[in-house]
Structure formats: structure tokens, C-alpha cells
Design brief:
By secondary structure, the protein is of the alpha+beta class. It has 2 domains: 30 residues; 151 residues, Glutaredoxin, CATH 3.40.30.10. 39% of the residues lie in helices and 24% in strands. The chain is built from 5 helices and 10 strands; from the N terminus they run H-E-E-E-E-H-E-H-E-E-E-H-E-E-H. It starts with a helix and ends with a helix.
């Protein structure tokens, strides 16, 4: 290997390392804390109306009085698929107590991709292979913007019975953390 090729390889390696470091620090600087909000920092959830998989309008305000976990996800997102069984379990365990998960699918292709995914896919939850058991809505960038924007999938927001966002989680949710937060608001 000649000197020029070695220099080019070193330059490429340095560039890759710089990009990785920049990405790490940008992510760290923009990551939102996962801590629950208190009464002073909780913000009202936005007024949004989305279409469900049957084409019907569903408004977030329909769920006022319930504890709601709004989960932004996509069919192609591996961490989203990993947490779906947990969301199914939460829906099973807490729905009778006034809780629901609202899955907001953010696939660019919309219902044409999401509907077959929801119908076909089965997930291991509580020892059984089951379908998603919570409402699935079709989201878009305008919806995400109303919630303060998204920097990755999945992103989940816990909304209290009085319609305030009390917790925001970017990335894979912590099952224990989110169930404790849900229970504290039921």
C-alpha cells in the first residue's frame, strides 16, 4: 500500500469518527429527559383528530378523562416492534381502569402499509401470540409538530386524565418506568 492510499484511509477513518462523535453529542444535547412532569411543567396535549384504519375520525379529546399513552411508531422501526408486546400488555392490564394506548403510525405510505401490518402481525404478549389490541391511527408530520416534533421512533407521551402531557419518552420505553407512571395517574 502506498503512502497516498494510507493517508486516504486515515482521512476516511478520521472523518467517520468525527461524524460518530458529532452524532453522539448532538443526540445527547437534544435528548429530552424521561422524568415525569410535575404540575408546573405538564403541558396540555394538543387538539388532534386523526383517521383510524377504517377511515373514521378519532379525536384525542374523545379520551379526556382517561390516561392515554400516545405512541408514535412505524412498521419498519425495529425498536417499535420490540415494544408493541409491552403496549399490548399495558392495554390488557389497565384498560378497565380508564387507560388506553393510541398507536400513531407514521409510515409515509399511510394506511396502505399500516393496515395489512396490523392485520397480519402477531406479537408475543403474556404467553400468547396476539394482534395489536389498541386503536391505531394514521399520523403525519403535522401531527408530530403539534406534539412538539419527533426526533426518532418510537416516541411516547403519557397524557393524564386532565389532558396534560406528563411524560415524554424518546426511543424504546422502559416497561417498568412507564407502568409506574401509568399506575400513578390511574
Amino acid at each position: 500500500m502506498n503512502k497516498t492510499a494510507r493517508n486516504k484511509g486515515a482521512w476516511m477513518a478520521a472523518t467517520v469518527l468525527a461524524l460518530l462523535a458529532g452524532t453522539y453529542f448532538a443526540d445527547k444535547a437534544t435528548r429530552l429527559p424521561r422524568k415525569s412532569a410535575n404540575a408546573d411543567t405538564a403541558v396540555p396535549a394538543p387538539e388532534v383528530t386523526l383517521k383510524d384504519l377504517g377511515g373514521q375520525d378519532v379525536s384525542l379529546s374523545q379520551y379526556k378523562g382517561k390516561v392515554v399513552l400516545v405512541n408514535f411508531w412505524a412498521t419498519w422501526c425495529d425498536p417499535c416492534r420490540l415494544e408493541i408486546p409491552w403496549l399490548i400488555e399495558m392495554q390488557q392490564k389497565y384498560s378497565a381502569r380508564g387507560f388506553t394506548v393510541l398507536g400513531v403510525a407514521m409510515d409515509d405510505e399511510g394506511a396502505s402499509v399500516v393496515t395489512p401490518f396490523v392485520r397480519k402481525e402477531r406479537f408475543d404478549a403474556n404467553g400468547a401470540k396476539v394482534q395489536m389490541n389498541y386503536p391505531i391511527l394514521i399520523g403525519n408530520e403535522a401531527t408530530a409538530a403539534k406534539f412538539g416534533g419527533l426526533i426518532g421512533f418510537p416516541t411516547s407521551m403519557l397524557i393524564s386524565r386532565d389532558g396534560k402531557i406528563v411524560q415524554r419518552s424518546v426511543g424504546l420505553i422502559s416497561f417498568d418506568e412507564i407502568t409506574k407512571a401509568i399506575e400513578s395517574h390511574l
